[in-house]
Design goal:
- The complex is a heterodimer.
- Helix content of chain A is 66%, strand content 0%.
- By secondary structure, chain A is mainly α.
- Chain A has one domain.
- In chain A, α5 packs antiparallel against α6.
- The longest helix of chain A has 22 residues, at 38-59.
- The radius of gyration of chain A is 18 Å and the shape is globular.
- Chain B has a domain at 1-82.
- Chain B has helices at residues 2-5, 10-26, 35-43, 61-79, 91-100, 112-115, 123-142, 147-156, 160-184.
- Classes of the chains: A mainly alpha, B mainly alpha.
- Chains A and B meet through α1, α2, α3, α4 and α5 of A and α2, α3, α4, α5 and α7 of B.
């Protein structure tokens, strides 16, 4: 039952990613050229509602659908890993034009070449796991 | 119906993304897509090579179901809920892309030079996709999150680490598009 709920949330997310063109390489390029408000509008409006909603959840001590208290874990403290990792991710985001959510959306849409991006991303995550202790965090 | 078949405006898409995050929060989970990369590495037995991947991936099965859904949603979005695939990017963006040699700008969903089936036999296109993927996977795990985990979930919770990561995303993206693209393409 819960699995079905996750599947529907994922389907909804995939449709939104495709139909909003957030999964389009062109939109990412346009965003980094500040040529259109589109991507900023998507992220900005999601974020505005996100901030308001998360505050409400915390202040009203809301519960999950299953009656458990909602715990939203803070991110671990740090600086270098977030900045360096962020810059590396940004380079890839702009080059391949897809972030880790839309990759699956585009596979479903039928773009076979995205499988190469996914293979690269898996290899990248694996390399991070191998090199983690040698990297500044 | 036409409204659904047209591309969706930002003021529809943004709130829907917030809704996805809240649905996952109310399911007792969180909205973060790149942790799936780690999970898939663990499924493939990467735990033998690095303790980073030694965790019970079954606990993250729910998120694998979400990305399976995201793929089905991509199929539905492209083949059932769209009439055309052209992305109406700004005219000045089309000009910039044409100057770089991307002829499909403004006419397709993804640039044909990189993503068409014929590009699969082009070593240059393959290298771009592979390197792009490597940077995405490495960077997302190094920064412990991607666009969903930091730019939406983390910033919604007013987390400073997420702000640092998002600033990093933009530094990387701007450097790639403005400094490196003219050298690469």
């Amino acid at each position: 039952m819960r699995t079905l709920a996750y599947l529907f949330i994922g389907i909804f997310f995939g449709v939104v990613m495709y139909k909003s063109e957030a999964a389009s390489w062109f939109r990412i390029y346009e965003m980094f050229h500040f040529d259109s408000f589109h991507m900023y509008g998507i992220i900005g409006s999601a974020l505005f509602l996100g901030v308001v909603g998360v505050q409400l959840i915390k202040r009203r001590k809301m519960k999950t659908f299953f009656g458990e208290p909602i715990k939203i874990a803070p991110k671990e403290r740090g600086f270098k890993n977030y900045l360096f990792g962020g810059v590396i991710f940004g380079l890839g985001w702009a080059l391949a034009g897809a972030c880790p959510g839309p990759i699956y959306t585009l596979i479903g849409a039928g773009y076979v070449s995205i499988l190469i991006v996914l293979a690269g991303a898996l290899l990248g995550a694996f390399l991070y796991g191998l090199l983690r202790k040698k990297l500044p965090h | 119906m036409d409204l659904i078949l047209e591309p969706w405006p930002w003021y529809v898409a943004g709130p829907m993304i917030a809704l996805v995050m809240f649905l996952l929060i109310f399911m007792g989970r969180k909205f973060g897509m790149s942790s799936n990369l780690e999970t898939m590495c663990a499924v493939c037995g990467a735990g033998k090579k690095s303790e980073y991947f030694s965790f019970d991936w079954r606990a993250n099965r729910w998120n694998l179901v979400v990305i399976l859904g995201a793929a089905i949603g991509g199929f539905a979005g492209a083949h059932l809920l769209s009439t055309g695939e052209a992305v109406a990017i700004a005219p000045e963006t089309v000009e910039k892309l044409n100057a770089l040699g991307f002829e499909s700008a403004g006419k397709a969903y993804l640039p044909e030079d990189l993503f068409s089936t014929s590009a699969l036999s082009d070593p240059f296109a393959l290298a771009i996709l592979m390197i792009g993927g490597l940077l995405i996977g490495f960077g997302a795990r190094y920064a412990a999150g991607c666009t969903s985990g930091h730019a939406i979930s983390g910033l919604s919770n007013l987390q400073l680490p997420s702000l640092i990561a998002v600033i990093g995303f933009f530094i990387g993206g701007l450097v790639m598009v403005h400094l490196l693209f003219p050298m690469i393409f």
